[in-house]
Amino acid sequence: MADESKESILIKVLGDYPLIRVLNFLVMFREFDYSLSDIAEESDVAWSTLHQLWPRLEQLGLVILTREVGNAKMYKLNTQNPLTQDLIRFTDSLVWNYTHKNILHEKVVMV
């Protein structure tokens, strides 16, 4: 398990589960595309687990195939999907509220 102080707010709120870790990674780095191997490694999810989760993410339209590089298929978060847009807003809201409450408030108190 990751160092709790460095754990993302999305994982803190929703729990440390493989699907949440994958979604967290994809939301954080939504501008870029990645191979499934990279996604598994960067989100600290076993390849076999990601392989079980991935078809559902594709079915829901949360991820899209962007290109092929050699034998590797590259994917990214589908930011055009309304469900994905809600997920991004939710995540951004969590980050904003956490930052405002815990970090900005600390600076005001310290002054």
Outline the fold blueprint.
Elements: H1 9-14, H2 18-28, E1 34-35, H3 36-42, H4 47-59, E2 63-69, E3 72-77, H5 82-110
Antiparallel strand pairs: 1-3, 2-3
Describe the structure.
With 111 residues, this protein is of the alpha+beta class. It has helices spanning 9-14, 18-28, 36-42, 47-59, 82-110; strands at residues 34-35, 63-69, 72-77. The chain has one domain: Winged helix-like DNA-binding domain superfamily/Winged helix DNA-binding domain (Arc Repressor Mutant, subunit A). It has a three-stranded antiparallel β-sheet with strand order 1-3-2.
Provide a compact summary of the structure:
The chain has 111 residues and is α+β, with helices and mostly antiparallel strands. The protein contains five helices and three strands; from the N terminus they run ααβααββα. The protein has a single domain, classed as Arc Repressor Mutant, subunit A (Orthogonal Bundle).
Helix content: 55-70%
As for the CATH topology, it is Arc Repressor Mutant, subunit A
The average pLDDT is: 89
Distance between the amino and carboxyl termini: 35 Å
Spatial sequence of strands, sheet with the most strands: 1-3-2
CATH architecture annotation name: Orthogonal Bundle
Number of helices: 5
CATH H-level superfamily:
Winged helix-like DNA-binding domain superfamily/Winged helix DNA-binding domain
